[in-house]
Prior knowledge:
The protein is an alpha/beta fold.
Amino acid sequence: MFEIVFLGTSASAPSVHRGLSAQLVKHDEHRFLIDCGEGTQRQILQSGLGFKHMNRILITHSHLDHILGLAGLLSTFMRWEAIEALDIYAGKASIERINDLLYGVVLRNTPAPMAINMVQIQPGVILEEKDFTISAFPVFHRGQDCYGFRFEEKGKQPFLAEKADELGVPSGPLRRELVQGNTITLEDGRLIRPTDVLGSLKEGTRLVHVGDVGQTENLVQECMGADTLVIEATYLEEEAAMAKQFAHLTAKRAAELAVASGVKQLLLTHISRRYREKDVLAEAQVVFPNTTVVRDFDTFLCKRI
Length: 305
């Protein structure tokens, strides 16, 4: 399963209680920072997460409230934290702006103490690990190359120990071979195939993260069946015209997407300080009851429900 920690949940500018956009997704030893608004490094420290394995960053788009914290984070890595490489995954427009920020402001012709890899993303799978994949998909917001991200665990077939016992498969390496999909031979010459001791394939957890976005029609398929959907809710429906003008969502529209996509849990972030949290929550829950308006340092486990 995935775990997501919200480091910054405010829209456009920080408030007294909310920092700028940043979330950390964890899966076993893997960590992925999504966006890096101003002050993110302090939020990382205050959360107690620390900087270990904090070397892969996914950027939704190039607006400053989502990338300015990269300057401070790089400065911290240069002075206090030893990492071999910093990998930043972003669209073309975002990479151009991040290059200006890091090389033009922070480094200024000084060699970086680690490799900085700018990975230009395209729709589709952008990262594949043993147990999960991360895919990018385009979203509509102001500007070019805006992306959402889908984290998907690979399906697993449970090992049926009782079946193995019945077939006389001893504990240890032979059972491990079967789990890995290999046929084994017992001492009496019998062949045991993985299908003899593995159950039906079970789908893994799906977590979908959408940053700033102004349209949802093209997102229904991308979010379909997600266990958890993280998405912005910058406006209330009473200011729907303003939301459309600035290519953001209202809480109601975010909830309607959750219904249309059949997601299990809706987490709303990017909250404007013009609204009370309870009003944002009330508007969304009328449409989709299993909604939470997240706060800085909230942590959620994303698992099959």
